[in-house]
Amino acid sequence: MKKRVILHAGDYFFGTARHEVATLLGSCVSVTLWHPQLKIGGMCHFALPENHFINPRFNPRFADDCYQLFQRSAAKHNTHLEEYQAKIFGGGNMYEKMPQARNILSSVERLPVGEKNVMSAVSFVTQANIPLLVAHVGEFGYRNIIFDIETGDVWVRFTPIHRQGDQSSLSGGF
């Protein structure tokens, strides 16, 4: 029987084939990394793309700190990030854009946080030369995801926030 690990915003986990990792995402993003030969991998759940605070410890609430944690975990297992496969989830738009800030903010600053989070995740995977297999991101809604470290599969249930009733859809095997 697999041990289920639940991640909340600001959590990070790296484990073996006996684990599955689950989380709920709105504008937050989860990146999964999976090593297909060793059946090890990890998942982060970050809320913001950058950590602007000076702190010697990594804080997985921030994307850039999660990437450092992935690098450390890979090194601890005598592997390199390029040996893993990446999948990116989340970055949903939870609110309408705020047009009143148009004159004082740059176009990047006006982007919803979910879009900034997705951009950060894609940039990390690209710069680290990690193959990106799936990106299930954006739209208005939230996602429940479960990452099976044994198989590398990630199951996704997307629920739009603009519809009433049971409008969720289950996608699997990403």
Descriptive overview:
The chain is an alpha+beta fold and 174 residues long. It has a single domain, classed as 60s Ribosomal Protein L30, Chain: A (2-Layer Sandwich). Helices cover 17% and strands 34% of the residues. The chain contains 2 helices and 10 strands. The strands form 2 sheets. It has a 5-stranded mixed sheet, with no helix packed on it. Strands 2-5-4-6-7 form a 5-stranded mixed sheet, covered by helices on one side. A hairpin with an 8-residue loop joins strand 9 and strand 10. The protein is globular. The model has no long low-confidence stretch (mean pLDDT 87). It comes from Vibrio porteresiae DSM 19223.
